[in-house]
Amino acid sequence: MPLAIDDLDDTWLPHVVAYLRRSPYRNALQLSNVTQLRQRCAVVLAHSNGLVQGVASHYRDLPFLGLTFVAELGETLPRLLEALANKVPALRTATLTAIFPEHRAKQLAEYVHIKSQAIAWQMVVEPETLRAHETPSVQRLRFEDLPAMNELATQCGLVAWRPDVFHNGPAFGVFREGSLAAMAATHFATPDVIEIGNIATHPDYRRQGLASACTSALASACFALAPRVYLMVMAENTAAYETYGKLGFWPFERFALVSFRLQNAPAE
Q: What's the CATH superfamily of 130-248?
């Protein structure tokens, strides 16, 4: 049968989830977009002869435009990109920012115009490798702490911060002198895999291990929700890489943070 492209619906959902679960770490973003974040995403799938051949999605709530995909080689990816751009026309005219496993970034480069690319590590942790970094004042953050979290996110320039963070999973923080000094939060939490991030420390309280304590507490809490926990760190950020390593995180796969434009987008 020829390749067909359709919107994700409840009939296809279990097949798409099974397809993505073959590589839950590598496909984590897509798993989040078709499950926990589905209502805030545009999702299209490719299928042939009753079998899923790929998925592409756009998460609307990020402060920048982007997309993510999983696609078999051949015509699948360009067909998915075209279908997704039809659903979200802004994707055709904007510079997009997204993060993919490195081999998928190379696959994408055949069909889009890459403007820039940087390497990041997906760092994973297991319950057996996680090392506690205890600070007595670490606490689970609540909705009433959101104004303080928003302020800290702004002070630290968190580019992927979303004020609806508590809809995505737990967060932990440390207060000093009535102000939020450090925090770590959850990007998404599916039954298969959780990404933690939004890790920040106020400049006045850095190099005291506060963010490490928040990250350790958050990862421990996340293992009650899913068997896999990871975070992303840019390859050039050696200080963060070493800090997460001391907590028991280890590099699992190289990703590429890519800035690109669809080939049919007008030039700037």
A: Gcn5-related N-acetyltransferase (GNAT) (3.40.630.30)
